[in-house]
């Protein structure tokens, strides 16, 4: 094993510490407390865990957390009315709707209802367009987390060759934009790419975001490259034995085969504990940035882009 | 010389004929497409472009009104003018000619144009739609370059594409349009260590940098398509001349297809503007009909 392990948990804690400092300063100097509203539709257990943990960290950073739980059969009109109310509420600086939502609702349409200035998930089409045209925007949290980890580990990214595997709106495309802004030479590879392994082998920076367990193996990696693994996949782990109900125990893995990649890479993010913890930290950072903009105050430097 | 020269003028003529047909249908429905061009201050700088757009509009059945405003027009006044044009159902597309006076930031004006009238494809919503692979009105030059590539007998899925130049209005939108078509795209720029390494691996190369002679034949894979978006004015012993970013002679020896400058991407860009005018008009018509078809309000 040669690769340095990039500790996303520790770095995320540092970012949350910075967020808390800015929040304290906003309160002291301006009497403003940033507020984040989270909307959860239905009772999906995983979503409940996420929402609870977002709420907890929001409060820990000194911000106000507003949780809105709606029944699984909530009508589109009711949900949109709530979003309109949150858009108009000056105490709310960030709004996010926890996905997935039930099938009778459309995620794209929900995002379109949120004021782009409060869209701390950075998913609104206007925010995607602002990012692509190099203007001030809110950048979606996971891509922002990837960028922060890369900058922290490598310093300047300028001139490095980056390959992003996966072209999703949520991760692949915004990561490409961010790395281009930092003057990387960027290739976006995906399921239609020919000779994927060869393409990845040319990269100083590999960002894997396809959602296929352990797809990228060590022989795809250029020696010394930095590997950012965005994938979170649950696979069977028979070596851990059986659960109480008799089913096989499971474990979380990324899109990279950690053991073989770590043999070759210069640095790699583990799963869990790599990019994952950065996502909530960046959500909190975005909320502070949105709050500063809404109040006409200078944005904290280096906290978001 | 082995490359086939791509005739942008003829592609543009085909597009205009198509646009004229669509414009006729819209006119019959009471929605004759109309563009308004806005120049502020130094109108001479863009005059050639405006006149050319006017001519192309006429031949595509699109009404074209060129407006000139004095250099001292304030941002507030321009805001009012654009709001008026946004609200005017007889106006279907708004073009902001550049350059603008220093006190008028171009991005601020582009954001004020209603996304349904954004025929230049510069509004953040238009760019965002491209990123999300939901193309309605795209930036004309980028769309034109991609349309030209699509006329060639190549399968876009899995195609290796290198884009040289990462400008917000050309390079980046081309990258997203090509990605949407299933290509594997690499974006190079002035910080890229070896552009040749990437361009030589590509089945299609787009170049949009503004540097004459940047791409030479030895940077291309034999048989590749080269789409040259650069427009540079250079002095030669024989006088002034317009050239692209590619060294045409050496590239034409190696490439399979090449766009000339002038006569390549340029004419298709103006034709794309006219196509956008028709698309915008149709979207406005549909929006209007949807709004008035509702009886529950």
UniProtKB/TrEMBL annotation, chain A:
The keyword Transit peptide does not apply. SUPFAM superfamilies: Aminoacid dehydrogenase-like, N-terminal domain (SSF53223), NAD(P)-binding Rossmann-fold domains (SSF51735). InterPro entries: Aminoacid_DH-like_N_sf, NAD(P)-bd_dom_sf, THF_DH/CycHdrlase, THF_DH/CycHdrlase_cat_dom, THF_DH/CycHdrlase_CS, THF_DH/CycHdrlase_NAD-bd_dom. Catalyzes the oxidation of 5,10-methylenetetrahydrofolate to 5,10-methenyltetrahydrofolate and then the hydrolysis of 5,10-methenyltetrahydrofolate to 10-formyltetrahydrofolate. NCBIfam families: PRK14186.1, PRK14188.1. HAMAP family: THF_DHG_CYH. This is Bifunctional protein FolD.
UniProtKB/TrEMBL annotation, chain B:
One of its GO terms (molecular function) is methenyltetrahydrofolate cyclohydrolase activity. Its EC number is 1.5.1.5, 3.5.4.9. The keyword Hydrolase applies. NADP(+) binds at residues 165-167, 231. GO terms for biological process: L-histidine biosynthetic process; methionine biosynthetic process; purine nucleotide biosynthetic process; tetrahydrofolate interconversion. Homodimer. This is Bifunctional protein FolD. It comes from Pelagimonas varians.
């Amino acid at each position: 094993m040669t690769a340095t392990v990039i500790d996303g948990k520790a770095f995320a804690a540092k970012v949350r510490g910075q967020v808390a400092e800015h929040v304290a300063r906003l309160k002291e100097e301006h009497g403003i407390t940033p507020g984040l509203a989270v909307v959860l539709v239905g009772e999906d257990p995983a979503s409940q865990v996420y929402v609870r943990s977002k709420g907890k960290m929001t409060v820990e950073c000194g911000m106000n957390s507003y949780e809105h739980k709606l029944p699984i059969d909530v009508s589109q009109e009711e949900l949109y009315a709530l979003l309109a109310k949150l858009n108009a509420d000056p105490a709310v600086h960030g709004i996010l709707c926890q996905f997935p939502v039930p099938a009778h609702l459309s995620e794209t349409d929900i995002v379109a209802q949120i004021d782009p200035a409060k869209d701390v998930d950075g998913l609104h089409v206007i925010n995607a367009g602002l990012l692509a045209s190099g203007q001030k925007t809110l950048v979606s949290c996971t891509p922002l987390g990837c960028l922060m980890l890369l900058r922290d580990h490598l310093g300047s990214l300028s001139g490095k060759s980056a390959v992003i595997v996966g072209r999703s709106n949520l991760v692949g495309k915004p990561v490409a934009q961010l790395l281009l802004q930092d003057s990387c030479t960027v290739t976006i590879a995906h399921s239609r790419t020919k000779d994927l392994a060869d393409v990845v082998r040319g990269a100083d920076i590999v960002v894997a975001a396809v959602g296929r367990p352990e797809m990228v193996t060590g022989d795809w990696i250029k020696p010394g490259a930095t590997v950012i693994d965005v994938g979170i996949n649950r696979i069977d782990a028979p070596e851990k034995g059986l659960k109480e109900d008799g089913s096989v125990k499971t474990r979380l893995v990324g899109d990279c085969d950690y053991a073989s990649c770590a043999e070759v890479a210069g640095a790699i993010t583990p799963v869990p504990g790599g990019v994952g913890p950065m996502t909530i930290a960046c959500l909190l950072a975005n909320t502070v940035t949105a709050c500063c903009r809404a109040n006409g105050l200078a944005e904290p430097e280096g906290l978001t882009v | 010389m082995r490359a086939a020269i791509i005739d942008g003028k003829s592609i543009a003529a085909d597009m205009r004929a198509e646009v004229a047909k669509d414009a006729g249908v819209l006119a019959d429905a009471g929605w004759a497409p109309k563009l308004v061009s806005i120049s502020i201050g130094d109108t001479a700088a863009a005059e050639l472009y405006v006149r050319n757009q006017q001519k192309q509009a006429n031949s595509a059945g699109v009404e074209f009104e060129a407006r000139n405003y004095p250099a001292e027009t304030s941002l507030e006044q321009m805001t009012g003018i654009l709001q008026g044009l946004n609200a005017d159902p007889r106006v279907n597309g708004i073009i902001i000619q550049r350059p603008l006076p220093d006190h008028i930031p171009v991005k601020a004006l582009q954001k004020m144009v209603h996304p349904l009238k954004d025929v230049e494809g510069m509004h953040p919503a238009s760019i965002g739609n491209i990123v999300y692979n939901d193309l309605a009105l795209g930036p004309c030059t980028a769309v034109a370059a991609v349309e030209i590539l699509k006329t060639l007998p190549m399968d876009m899925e899995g195609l290796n594409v290198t884009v040289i130049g990462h400008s917000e209005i050309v390079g980046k939108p081309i990258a997203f349009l090509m990605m949407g078509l299933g290509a594997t795209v690499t974006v190079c720029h002035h910080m890229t260590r070896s552009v040749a390494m990437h361009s030589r691996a590509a089945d299609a190369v787009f170049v949009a940098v503004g540097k004459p002679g940047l791409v030479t034949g030895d940077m291309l894979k034999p048989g590749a398509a080269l789409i040259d978006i650069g427009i540079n004015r250079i002095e030669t012993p024989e006088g002034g001349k317009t050239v692209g970013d590619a060294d045409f002679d050496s590239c034409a020896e190696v490439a399979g297809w090449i766009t000339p400058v002038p006569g390549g991407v340029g004419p298709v860009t103006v034709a794309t503007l006219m196509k956008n005018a028709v698309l915008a008009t149709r979207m406005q018509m549909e929006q209007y009909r949807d709004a008035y078809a509702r009886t529950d309000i």
